[in-house]
Amino acid sequence: MKPRPRQAAIVGLYVTKQARRLEGRTELDLLMEAADGALADAALDARDVDGAAIAWPGPGGVPNEVGSWASYFKTPLAFTSEHWSDCAGARGILKAAAAIEAGLCDIVVLGSGTAGQFTSGSVGVGDGIEFADVYGSTAMAQFALVMRRYMHEYGVGPEPFAHVAATIRNHGHVNPEAVMYGAGPYTAADVLASPLIAAPLHRLECALVAEGACAIVLTTLERARDLPHAPVLVLGGGMEFHGAAYANPPLLREMGMMGQEAVKRTFSAAGATPRDVDVFCLYDAVAFEVVRQFEMLGFCRPGEGGAFTAGDRLTLQGDCPTNLDGGILSHSWIGTGQLTLKAIECARQLRGGCGARQVEGAELALATNAGAGARHIEMALFGRA
Amino acid sequence: MLEPPLTAYALKPTPLTQPFWDAARERRLVVQHCRTCSKKFFRPEIACPHCRARDWEWVESTGKGTLYSFAVMHRAPSPAFKAPFIFAAIEMDEGWVLFSNLIGLEIEEAEIGMEVEVCFHAVSDELTVPLFRPARR
Prior knowledge:
heterodimer, A: 385 residues, alpha/beta, Peroxisomal Thiolase, Chain A, domain 1, 12 helices, B: 137 residues, mainly beta, 5-stranded antiparallel beta sheet, 3-stranded antiparallel beta sheet, 1 helix, 8 strands
């Protein structure tokens, strides 16, 4: 693909320590470490940053007001994103890249994370979702609704999803940065023997809750050529929103293949197809969603994702290496920062130097965020310059 | 036998949603009916999601539907819920869908496609929630 004028590229990245609990750390303290780390990685100065797509939780400034970063970066900032999902993952990166390519700003720091917030209990889907919260809704519960209906309609048992969960957790088992490093190895039988959380979902099929932060730096490809790391191009992306997240029941007939339009948009922008992808960093809040996304991507027909993801296909040795860092099942889940971790693993694989989990010669990497249970999805395709 | 899981909740209704909760307190399940396209819709919206018309009315539902899918919640999302319970998606015979809890049966008896009917659980003086139980034959 010929780079676009002012083509946006990732030039710096940083991930703080990820752990169940980071004693004594606050979210903003972690975010500043991540921002500084990503800028150091990019060899750029904080006072040159004119775009902020990084969460501002406070204290100081005004909480949830991203413009508060002006005092830490450049004053005036030329661009800010909204505090929540615009500061993370494919959604945040696509908007920041669009801002750079539109000439609104030149250097964006994007990031988010969490600390001290989710110390125990389940993760709900947020306060104030009337007609869902009163029935005990959680994110896991809503994914479980789609998964059970899928199993019912296609006559699929729990084993294929347990296999995918075990595969991804085994990736985290050997990643020293993963929260669940050394906790395995796992078999599908181990997953099925773990406690039921929101049946049919077992605990080991569900994402972690951890603490940490991460950040990336984006600028133009032209600027990137003078910087130390090989630039990672934002080749294309797509998003779909089917109403407010977690507010209405996710029906399989509407959500089963949700994301196909975003896939089309993502790959047509890049002049590629899903079969060209070397590295998959797919949303794995639950293992079922990974199976569904291979159907969405067109690798197999609806109901056949379990057969497609069997064996070692999703491993480094397979033809669809997926979530080699351990994903949010095993590497880490840090609020909206988990969305950015997908893009960071893509960028690391494209730069090379991922050590034992490096996909040799990786040229195209796909990050996806959210899925069927949430009734929205965002994705971005990354490549080498 | 599964019982109503919710023990306490501070509802924050809006002017749009208040009629639903008022009706529930009177043990009636109501839904918006579009006068332009004659379809029903839920959750409450200002404009019909089917045809965009704003000419709608609240009507009483038959309360009959089927179990579209469900999750057996072994872990309560907050201390206000008694686990285990069933978080359900109910597809009403009238063509609208909603979240609810399925009660009045054993967990093992829950089955996709089973016929269900509305019942009501008074959580407090202010809040009554519509729940579902197996339909009586």
